[in-house]
C-alpha cells in the first residue's frame, strides 16, 4: 500500500539517537498504529514493547534479531518482524525509509 487514507497523524516527531532516526505516528480508525520514518547511516539498538513489523521502503540495513547471532541484510521492498518485549540492533548502511507496524 503506497498511501494511507482516513488516518490521524501525530504532529510531533519521534526523535531517537540525536535525530539520526525520526518518525511520525499514524493512527488508523481501528486504533492500530504505524510509524513512518527515516534512519541515517549508523548503528542503533531498539527495545520493543509490542511485536513489530519493519517494512523497509528504500535503503539498506543489516539487522540482528533476538536469538540470532548473525546479521541479516534487508533492502528496500523487504521486511522483518521483531517479537514483543525484546531488543534488536540495526546497522543502517544507507539512508533508509521505513514503515513500522505495531502488531499487538
From TrEMBL:
Catalyzes the phosphorolysis of diverse nucleosides, yielding D-ribose 1-phosphate and the respective free bases. Can use uridine, adenosine, guanosine, cytidine, thymidine, inosine and xanthosine as substrates. Also catalyzes the reverse reactions. It catalyses: inosine + phosphate = alpha-D-ribose 1-phosphate + hypoxanthine; uridine + phosphate = alpha-D-ribose 1-phosphate + uracil; xanthosine + phosphate = alpha-D-ribose 1-phosphate + xanthine; a purine D-ribonucleoside + phosphate = a purine nucleobase + alpha-D-ribose 1-phosphate. PANTHER family: PYRIMIDINE/PURINE NUCLEOSIDE PHOSPHORYLASE, PYRIMIDINE_PURINE NUCLEOSIDE PHOSPHORYLASE. Belongs to the nucleoside phosphorylase PpnP family. This is Pyrimidine/purine nucleoside phosphorylase. Keywords: Glycosyltransferase, Transferase. The keyword S-adenosyl-L-methionine does not apply. It comes from Geomobilimonas luticola.
Amino acid at each position: 500500500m503506497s498511501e494511507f487514507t482516513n488516518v490521524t497523524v501525530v504532529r510531533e516527531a519521534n526523535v531517537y539517537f540525536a535525530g539520526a532516526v525520526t518518525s511520525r505516528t499514524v493512527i488508523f480508525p481501528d486504533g492500530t498504529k504505524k510509524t513512518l520514518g527515516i534512519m541515517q547511516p549508523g548503528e542503533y539498538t531498539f527495545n520493543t514493547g509490542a511485536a513489530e513489523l519493519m517494512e523497509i521502503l528504500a535503503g539498506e540495513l543489516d539487522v540482528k534479531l533476538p536469538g540470532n547471532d548473525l546479521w541479516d541484510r534487508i533492502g528496500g521492498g523487504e521486511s522483518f518482524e521483531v517479537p514483543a518485549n525484546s531488543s534488536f540492533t540495526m546497522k543502517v548502511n544507507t539512508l533508509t525509509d521505513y514503515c513500522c507496524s505495531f502488531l499487538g
